Each structure stands twice: as C-alpha cells, then as structure tokens.
Amino acid sequence: MALFPPIDSLPQSLSLSDLEPLESLAQCAPVDDANVSRYYSLFIYCLIINDDIEEARFLLKRASAARRTISADSTEVTDTIAPLSTARKILTSLWTKNYVEFFLTVEAARHSVPLESPEANMLRTLADHVREANYSFVSRAFLSGALSDIAVYFGISEIDAKEFLVQKGWRVTDELTVRAPALSKEPTKAAAQQKARLDSLTSLITHMQRA
User: Fold this and answer.
1) What order do you get walking across the sheet with 171-174 strand by strand?
2) CA–CA separation, 112 vs 17, rounded Å?
3) What is the pLDDT of residues 52-99, one digit of tens each?
4) Alpha helices of 23-182 — where are they, by DSSP H?
5) pLDDT per residue as tens digits for the range 149-206
6) Nearest Cα residue to 12 out of 126, 127, 122, 113
7) pTM confidence score
C-alpha cells in the first residue's frame, strides 16, 4: 500500500493546490492511517472555504468509501477516523444552516488540536469565512433585528455581536436591537464614470443633430 505523507510535514497554510494531488495516495493508504483522515478533513474544510460545499459533500462520500470505517451518516468514531467524523459534523451543520452547531463544533475542534497545527489554522480560517459570508446575508436580509437573532449567524455572544456590527456601521437602537447602516445615496465611482460617459455621448449626439 502507498505511504501517505505525515500531515505535519505539509505547509501550515494549505490550499486546494496542495491537497488535491494527494487524494489518489489517500485512497490507496492503509485504512488505519490517521494521517489520511486528517487529510480528508482538511480537504473538506478547504473546499468549504472556497465556497464549494457541494464538492465537499462528494469528497466526504469518497473518503467514507475509501476508509470503509465511517459512512456519511454514521456517528461511530475511532481514534483514526475522529478528524473525518468532526468534518462530517461541521459539513452537515453548515449544509443544514445549523449555525449554532457549526460554530460550537468548529470551536471544540480547534481546542482539540495543537495551536500550530494545520487543522487549527484551517478551522480558524473556516470560522472567519463563514462568519463573513453570514454577515453578507444578514446585511441584505435585516434592516434591523434583535441581537439574539443575529448573533446566531456569527457564533459569538450578543455582546460580541453588538461590537462586531457596530464596527460594520450598524447602530444600536437599544441594548437588544440593532439597525443596519443606511444605504448610501451617493453614486459609486463606477456609476459616476458611467454617467459621465453617457452625458458625453448625449452631448455629442445633440451636437451632430444640430450640425
């Protein structure tokens, strides 16, 4: 069987280009190789960070088949497949939009690995990515709302959510409610340039008609 490289020998900041070429080795590695489950979990996290959750789900199925020790819906865990089981919980909670479970699982996973490990770095990036993506949704969906409702999307306390939103320009209308920043009425630079071009074209057409 092929030997899979130790995860700790890989770069700490991993990208898809680092991980994708290793899948063929992972599929041929011994079932009890803990490095392989770590690899698959990192690959799944990296796909989510790159906004490819569908491919992350397909990867979980491929990993489950290759490992033959965990199915996509299994709750059984051993030491060698624990990283893959955690990745499954994270992926499932994100797919079902259970953000409370997502952030709790990510936080628990971060505390279960060494601070300087590839997993710690990837999980930190994953949490930040989902938090920012959820902010984009919240900023479109809410003109105002209760902190308790909005904080769920960020996986932080109401106090931290209030601070986070204030930094983004939101106003606190009382201790429990926040209001989104008003939309700017000033034209963007691109809109101003487009208007200038249109005005110039209109002026040219008018001049030609008068000639």
Assistant:
1) 144-146, 177-179, 171-174
2) 26
3) 999 999 999 998 887 664 444 444 444 457 889 999 999 999 999 999
4) 23-28, 34-49, 53-67, 82-95, 99-111, 118-141, 147-151, 158-167
5) 999 999 999 999 999 999 999 998 877 888 988 754 455 566 566 656 656 555 645 5
6) 122
7) 0.77
- Which SS3 state, helix, strand or coil, does residue 174 take? strand
DSSP string for 137-148: HHHHH-SEEEHH
Identify the H or E element spanning 171: strand 171-174
Amino acid of residue 75: T
| CA–CA gap between residue 71 and residue 99 (Å, rounded) | 23
φ and ψ at 128, to 5 degrees?
-65, -40
Tokens of 46: 């990296």
Q: Which of 110, 46, 36, 29 is nearest to 80 (CA)?
A: 36
